[in-house]
Amino acid sequence: MATNPFHLAIAVHDLGDARKFYGELLGCPEGRSCEHWIDFNLYGHQLVCHKTGLAVAELPTSLVDSEAVPVPHFGVVLAWHEWEILAERLRNAGVDFLIEPTVRFKGQPGEQATMFLADPSGNMLEFKAMRDPDLLFAGRID
C-alpha cells in the first residue's frame, strides 16, 4: 500500500525538550527549524513542533480492548520488527509508558502490538504494528 506523508503540527512548551524527545529518544532526523518551531522526520512524515509555552491539558480516554486510550493521540504504524526495536529502546531509556508495550486483540483479525507514551509537553503518541499489515483498515471489530 503506497502512502503519502502526512503533516502534523503540535504544540510544545520547550523546543529543547522536543529535540531531546523526538530527535534523540525517538531518533527522528531534524529538518528545518527556527526559534519558534522544528520540523522532524517521523518515519517519513513531517512532524512540526511549534513552541507555545503551554503544556497540553488533561485528555479524555476511550476504552479499547480493556485499556483507557488517550484521545487525541498520534503515532506511526511500524513493521513488527521495527516496533520491537523501538519498544526495547524506549524500555532501556526508562520511558514512563502510559500503556506499556503489549499485544491487543490476540488471535483475532487486527491483532496488533501497541504502546503509548507522552512527550514532555503532554502530547500523546501511539506506536503500533499489525500482525497482518493487510488488516490495518479491516472491517468492524465487535
Walk me through what this model shows.
The longest helix is centred in the middle third of the chain and has 13 residues, at 80-92. The protein is of the alpha+beta class and 142 residues long. Strands 1-4-3-2 form a four-stranded mixed sheet, with helices on one face. The chain has a four-stranded mixed sheet with strand order 7-10-9-8. A two-stranded antiparallel sheet has the order 5-6. A hairpin with a 5-residue loop joins strand 9 (112-118) and strand 10 (124-130). The chain has one domain: 2,3-Dihydroxybiphenyl 1,2-Dioxygenase, domain 1. It is globular. The protein is built from two helices and ten strands; from the N terminus they run E-H-E-E-E-E-E-E-H-E-E-E. It is 17% helix and 41% strand.
Poorly predicted segments: none
How many discrete domains?
1
Mean pLDDT: 90
The CATH class designation is: Alpha Beta
Number of strands: 10
> What is the H/E string?
EHEEEEEEHEEE
Q: What's the CATH architecture?
A: Roll
Strand order of the largest sheet: 1-4-3-2
CATH H level, superfamily name = 2,3-Dihydroxybiphenyl 1,2-Dioxygenase, domain 1
Name the descriptors.
142 residues, alpha+beta, 2,3-Dihydroxybiphenyl 1,2-Dioxygenase, domain 1, 4-stranded mixed sheet, 17% helix, globular
Give a summary of the structure in a few sentences.
The chain has helices spanning 15-25, 80-92; strands at residues 7-12, 30-33, 37-42, 45-51, 61-64, 67-70, 74-78, 97-104, 112-118, 124-130.
List strands and helices in order, with pairings.
Layout: E1 7-12, H1 15-25, E2 30-33, E3 37-42, E4 45-51, E5 61-64, E6 67-70, E7 74-78, H2 80-92, E8 97-104, E9 112-118, E10 124-130
